[in-house]
């Protein structure tokens, strides 16, 4: 048995489904995630969207404690499914810590013990960045036509997706972490700007495409990538990661409408989102950022209601800080 795995760095295993080594089989693969983690969220979103919940089983770690700066001992499973709502025991092996799953795959494993981790009960591996690319089609041959046909990387939009992905990943998905984990004032000042430069740009792109998705009528992997970060933005990144030049709900009417639409209209988005796991993970597992581990109660509500269907009625917003505007201007239009 082996793990099909994980992180974007060199410390994991790599493989894709379907392939001769990893065929698309129901019941063969097991996904280890945390509901708090935006990278794991991408995989779980796809699992819901593509009707894979019966095909890929799942175990869910608790959102805290996290472990030390080296990741030791890392994420743990609750002792029972009642201990922390939404977290589960390790359904495959009954282990207490996620790192033990990594060592089952490789006793000499030297990398980090991160979620998501995809386990192949017979052999193998993958990574989460690639998971977003291949998981959406991985099981198409055994899925009913109505879900098999959901294509998040459609031919006619590939160039646009490929043009947006690098800066969305760097400035938004990873950007909030670069600002939030900055160790110095200078580092923070430098890293918070691109986050809002990119949000300003996305506000305009979505407005120009007319919604309800980033590129217009068709949901693509960009929506999943962006959702996993923006659903955490007002809730966590504004205060915990100090990304507070603006909020989605106050400063970005178009992005906010997109987010509301994703949450309220796309079941797979809503069903893969758990705000308690999200809030308690960041605020109770980063002792250096929040030493008292008090989780702020707001904002309330987690996501606003009332999706505006007439996108032309929306004001195009954005943060007007001069450095943000300058950064926005440097991002190439798709
Ligand atoms: N780059 C990896 C990282 C995923 C990741 O950073 N997961 C975090 C939680 S959001 C984690 O498990 N960190 C534990 C650690 O690195 O020790 C990926 O995209 O799969």
TrEMBL record:
**Site (described: Lowers pKa of active site Cys):** 237, 282
What cellular component terms from Gene Ontology apply here? cytoplasm
Q: Start and end of every GST N-terminal domain?
A: 36-137
| Superkingdom of source | Eukaryota
Residues that, per the record, bind glutathione: 75, 112-115, 127-128
Entry-linked CDD domains: GST_C_Omega_like
Q: Which GO terms describe its molecular function?
A: glutathione transferase activity
**Alphabetized Pfam families for the sequence:** GST_C_2 (PF13410), GST_N_2 (PF13409)
**InterPro entries reported for this sequence:** Glutathione-S-Trfase_C_sf (IPR036282), Glutathione_S-Trfase (IPR040079), Glutathione_S-Trfase_N (IPR004045), GST_Omega-like_C (IPR047047), GST_Omega/GSH (IPR016639), Thioredoxin-like_sf (IPR036249)
Q: Which residues are annotated as active site? A: 37 (nucleophile), 177 (proton donor/acceptor)
Kindly provide the name given to this protein in its UniProt entry.
GST N-terminal domain-containing protein
To which species is this protein native? Penicillium cinerascens
